[in-house]
Amino acid sequence: MLALLMLRSDTMVRVTECVEELWGTESPKRAMSTLQTYTLQIRRAFTAAGCPAALLPRTQASAYLLAGHEVDWVRFERLAAAGRAAAAARDHRRAADLLTEALALWRGPAMVDVPTGPLSAARVVALTESRKVVLEQRVEAELRLGLHERLLPELADLTGANPTNENLHAQYMLALYRCGRPEDAEAVYRGLRDLLVDTLGVEPVPRLRALYETVLDRPADIPTGAITSLRHPADR
To answer: What pairing do the DSSP bridges indicate for beta strands 13-14 and 58-59?
Structure first.
């Protein structure tokens, strides 16, 4: 119950949504009174922890509200938005710092120790995907700062854990190339292509294929902009 209210912080959560989250289609006959008991227990726990009365969970018009708390996901999204704004302004040092700070709020998978119902499960999926995107954006900011050598071990791990993620593979290829390892960059592309063709029946996106062809040409450098926006729907 508390997790659901925190995931919907500053938003009214209808009683019917709470029932669906906690019990699905098999709600008990005394679901309403049980929700009231849960809310009372949460309020007591908050009060015991020194929480001001204004920040306690409230009941309004057959709905519950947890407002005024800066929970981690709210801070994460605010820092991520600020980091993206800094990147758009070409302040890549600030972008990297803000995105790093956002990612540092994560201490493992979202809701890892809390059973999820249908409502919170969807939110957890969205947060997990947002975390992946912010991670890629942080890597891009650090590539623009010339930190390719430092990123190599992390990108090796990330591509291993995400074997079909084309954007991470593009970032790894770029870091390898800038470290004087073009053959390894080529091998990363070929490994990814083989996996995509064998398991999904698709070729890498055009922009990734273009990056591979650029690597084959051995230019003096490859700009970071060559690997951005590989997630764009037009690529498929």
So the answer is: unpaired
Structural tokens at position 93: 């040092």
**Per-residue pLDDT tens over the stretch 142-199:** 999 999 999 999 999 999 999 999 999 999 999 999 999 999 999 999 999 999 999 9
Q: How far is CA 160 from CA 9, 125, 131, 156, 168, in A?
A: 35, 21, 17, 6, 10
**pTM for the structure as a whole:** 0.87
Residue 235: pLDDT band (50, 70, 90) is very low
Strand partners, 14: 63
Amino acid (one-letter) located at 68: G
- Return the C-alpha torsion angle 199, 200, 202, 203, nearest 10: -40
CA distances from 17 to 5, 14, 112 (A): 11, 5, 21
Give the residue among 82, 62, 73, 142 at the shortest CA–CA distance from 110.
Answer: 73
Which two structure tokens, joined as six digits, stand for 144? 């623009």
